[in-house]
Amino acid sequence: MGKYKRRHFLAQSGTLFAAGLLHSGFSSKGYAQPEAGEGFGAVIDKQPFGRLQQVGEGVWAVVSTPLNAQGEFAHAQTVCNGGFIAGEEKVLAIDAFLQPAGAHWMAEQARQLTGKRPTDVIVTHFHADHSGGLAGYQVGDEGPEIIATETTRKLINERYGEGRPQEDQPFARPAIRVVGPTQIMLDETTPVTMDLGGRSVTIDPLSGHTPSDLAIHLDDLPIIFAGDLVWKGLFHNYVDAIPSKLRTSVEKLLKDPQKLIITGHGEIGMAGEMGNYLELLNLVEERAKAAHAAGQSPTEGAAAFSVPESLGEWHLFSPAYYERAFSAWYRELDA
Ligand SMILES: [Zn+2]
Asked: In the chain, is it the N or the C terminus that has fewer CB atoms within a 10 Å radius of its CB?
């Protein structure tokens, strides 16, 4: 690996560390890429980092595949799932991925399929793997409206706006190319209807994965973009979670079994087939509460935790994820 390439790779890794996704030396062996969801619509484009598939009339989902067959982080362009919804006037993109290259790729797909680049982008929550690529939607002096809640705007700046010193460099460097919203949702309790021309979506302010998460409901098709509130086949990242609120939000999103859920990470699927996700959240709660009551530390509690086979396979982005889950519950229990 040449000097330039290595430095480039390290810069990518730095961003993944910042996103809380990567830990050194970690590999989740035998990770199966989420191919199962391919049944939900024609695959339009397939890249090493993810694929684009049509999941409904004028609706496309990005399903990211950041891990290689060895379960190691290999593709950082998108990392999260997302997609876009075309109306007669607007093309609404959901999320911006980790890198501008990911957003640029999806915007180009949108242009080819709908005749337009995204006119609007919703950032479901502040994490770098959903907000880090925003700059990739801009072309010359034209860019989309960027919609986020006030909490998300604030957290993007707090978490990623600050530069980190670089060795032998006069400048500190933020973890991502921070781009802010142009449309800020100040009321984070009331759903908003957005007209795309001939169809509309409902922007649903929720919380639980972070202090502020948006889910997007199509009003004319049984499809929900759930952001990181719902994961499939990958264990939830509780790093900023409010677990009691997470469960409430997930119950709401999975209530109608006939809805197609575009998850934040892992496979997409029908709500009716995602009961094991809710069961897993409940199991984590039960075990975390028991460990807390027994006076154990989150580390001790997590060390005794494993996912029972009956709940299916849940891979870990990082071995620290069980401990993060227990810590999130301890934050709530100690508050
Ligand atoms: Zn994410």
From this structure: C
| Partners of 263 in the β-ladder | 227
**How much distance in Å is there from the Cα of 129 to the middle of ligand 1?**
5
CA distance 124 to 81: 11
198 C-alpha vs ligand 1 centroid, how far in Å? 30
Cα dist from 245 to 36, 152, 186, 240, whole Å: 29, 17, 20, 12
CA of 265 to the centre of ligand 1 (A): 7
Instruction: State whether the Cα torsion 17-74-264-309 is positive or negative.
Output: negative
- 170 CA → ligand 1 middle, Å: 32
pLDDT per position as a tens digit, 62-110: 999 998 888 888 999 999 999 999 999 999 999 999 999 999 999 999 9
Mapped onto helix, strand or coil, the DSSP state of residue 54 is: strand
Measured between alpha carbons, how far is residue 72 from residues 13, 22, 58, 68, 126 in Å?
A: 12, 9, 33, 6, 24
CATH topology of domain 3-274: Metallo-beta-lactamase; Chain A (3.60.15)
Ligand 1 mean position, distance from CA 252 (Å)? 20
Tell whether the torsion through CA atoms of 29, 48, 18 and 24 is positive or negative: positive
CA 267 – ligand 1 centroid, Å: 13
Which residue matches tokens 């154990």? 296
Residue 165 C-alpha from the chain's centroid:
27
Strand, helix or coil at 56? strand
CB 60 within 8 A of CB 52: yes
pTM for the whole structure: 0.90
**pLDDT tens digits for range 185-233:** 999 999 999 999 999 999 999 999 999 999 999 999 999 999 999 999 9
Expressed in angstroms and rounded, the spacing between residue 208 Cα and the centre of ligand 1 is 13
Q: Quick check: 64 and 47 in contact, CB under 8 A?
A: no
Q: Are 117 and 110 in contact (CB under 8 A)?
A: yes
Taking the centre of ligand 1 as the mean of its atom positions, its distance from the CA of residue 26, in whole angstroms, is 18
SS3 335: coil
